[in-house]
Prior knowledge:
The chain is built from 30 helices and 29 strands. By secondary structure, the chain is of the alpha/beta class.
Amino acid sequence: MAKKEGQLTPMMQQFFDLKKKHPDAILLFRCGDFYETYCDDAVIASRILGITLTKRNNGYNKGDEMAGFPHHALDTYLPKLIRAGKRVAICDQLEDPKLTKKLVKRGITELVTPGVAMSDNVLSYKENNFLASVNFGRAVYGVSFLDISTGEFLVGEGTPDYVEKLLGNFQPKEVLFERSRHQDFERLFGNRFCTFQLDDWVYSEETAQQKLLRHFGVKSLKGFGVAHMHSGIVAAGAILHYLEMTQHTQIGHITNLSRIEEDKYVRLDKFTLRSLEILQPMQEDGRSLLDVIDNTVSPMGSRLLRRWLVFPLKDKAPIEERLDMVDEFFREPALRQSIDEQLKRVGDLERIISKVATGRVSPREVVQLRVALEAVGVLNGVNGSNGVNGSNGLNGPDGTQNAQIAHIAHQKEIAHQKESPLSQLLSRLDPCSELRERIRREIKNDPPQLMQKGGVIADGVNAELDELRHIAYSGKDYLLQIQEREAQLTGIQSLKIGYNNVFGYYLEVRNTYKDKVPQEWVRKQTLANAERYITQELKEYEEKILGAEDRIISLEQQLFNQLVIDIQKYISQIQSDAILLARLDVLLGFAKTAEEHRYVRPVIDESEVIDIRQGRHPVIETQLPLGESYVPNDIHLDNEHQQIMIITGPNMAGKSALLRQTALIVLLAQVGCYVPAESARIGLVDKIFTRVGASDNISLGESTFMVEMTEAASILNNVSPRSLVLFDELGRGTSTYDGISIAWAIVEYLHEQPKARARTLFATHYHELNEMEKSFARIKNYNVSVKEVDGKVIFLRRLERGGSEHSFGIHVADIAGMPRSIVKRAGVVLKQLEASHGPSEGGEGRVSKPTKEIANSREGMQLSFFQLDDPVLCQVRDEILGLDINNLTPVEALNKLNEIKKIVKS
């Protein structure tokens, strides 16, 4: 983008000077009523935004590209650029073009990137918008996450695997790291993230410490519990540096730095998150676990639910506390409804208060803040300063709010006697009554979204504003009052007030009444039959009315800005309210889900037992055709008698669903949710591992088998006796001999290795593994049953004791729509294989090589005509084989052909 600077116009010189500051960002250059892009930026913007790419003469090259859009459409086009992973520098005019004869002064007012977006049009209300930073420490790696839209600031440390797990769980929109570590980052974490590289000096502990201490206004980070996390602190400090770079300096809502405590949460690796479809389905038309159980009504609750699902708890006490609250909601439908109605009024309190801190809050959002605080007041049982019957917005015309307050207060009193978690949570809410009342007094109920439109500040707040409005919007009435008053005082009955562009407002007196004109009136014009005068009052009024509208907007802006500054004093309390309301919303949603889908409360204990009776898959059961019910199953695992369940059975019988539902039930239980089962006893697990399904990673040169072995290795290197492990069809990516050998060795390791004695479900087609039950005490065989009727397979989907000897793969191929000729041929080959290896080795999955007879039964790529088991065709074959071709006359050949034709027709 280099230019010969001497040939540039002043404006384009200004553009390139600003572009040098952020060469990797698309520069939106404000020019009059448009934002314009030039050169390479224009080419990129036109493609992403679908706007016209044009040319302009910029003083250097008549062919330079340009693309632009109206400035008021910024909120429409900016999100598209950010979602495309682009960084955008917004360059605005810093002075009024009308007030200068020189080049308008311009400057970059904001650098918007995927990780620091604040616009509602860019953000998804259901998920956080995290910016991440990774520090490649010597001993441990550090990682930090910030959502600038909510103020959440987190820090963690660990191995590269742990950092990768956190990146997968938090799903940041942008990741920062040292410029010199580019290759290391891609090697360890791949290239799926939108990244930005910072200078290496940013990642120094001294620099990071200074930035964090200065921001939080403290002398030590010990109060946050992170002082010992040296590598994590460096990652967090780099984030604050990046905020300065992008000119996000109003960050008063970032009030805390929290430690991600690895030992508090169940480990879920990226394979498990993907295969269990916790947040996203693997199929476009599928549903995730989140989709099924998300019954939250607030954006804050929805975001918290996502967090809880990827960070299940592994301590009994906090899980039981959540379950107790769900139980209260479950047993008290009236209380549930009352609280639900208030939560629906809250809106996105968390992001609104963040906008207050950054000075980006709109008048409507301030009104929403007031509504949210009113709802908090009801939930807390606190009435407004005017009492229950006051006009504070808490009470509906039919008294419904009063009834809800009374009901919630009654339930709180009962709950308080039991010292329930729900009672404690509600009592911790702070309704900020003074702030709520001030907003109610000062801001109109239905203000415009933009301050520039006026009509934001309520009447009675400011005397000057009231007067200006009266002047601007009731000018005729005011002039009439002056006219009537002066007429009475002077006795001039024909007095009139008029206006012209020469000297403005005037009093017109007919010559008949000239002698009654007061001395203080100043004559300005003489007419044939009258004279015109001005007064000091009229001049003052004129000055007021001519600038009234501009002054109204300016004064309203001042008053609104002062209110926002005062609201900032309540940031900490309101953020605390937002956290509590989000928690309340999620747990209330769990109760709704439990009622809707017939879930039950699990029993959580410290044992090593998982005992699920009549368990169901929470997602699959919601997608069944009308009238079809899910077939539930029992699962029992412990570390003394039944540690490993070998599950065999045909494809499509439900083995994979059984494995996944077990993991999801355990996960839901440790999140604090009721579970889809008749009953469930969950001995706490510390990690959930899955090796389900197989896929090539061709982009990295990894085959199906390589992916299988990588995932299996990750499990075996991190497993513990408290883990839950799910293996499905391990070893399919290699030869049968290798597959069985590896599967056998892995099962044996999990059984025999004391440090790896995890509760395990192992679904397989290798029926040889059923032999392990005879040699290993804690391995038990199960199969998913089927019934064969008249050559057809009926899937019962019921788990039964004992192994299975048949996979019914050919039947599944038939159901899937495989061509009939292939299905028949497969049946013949299977019979030949079973016959050649004897009954003791029969069945699909046996170790065997294609026999010479099978190979000889094929004629090139054509299936052999005479290998078909049709008796008519066999007779035709015999007739043809009995012919003496060398001595056959043409007439005899025709006769023989006719005979064969009759055989086929008969």
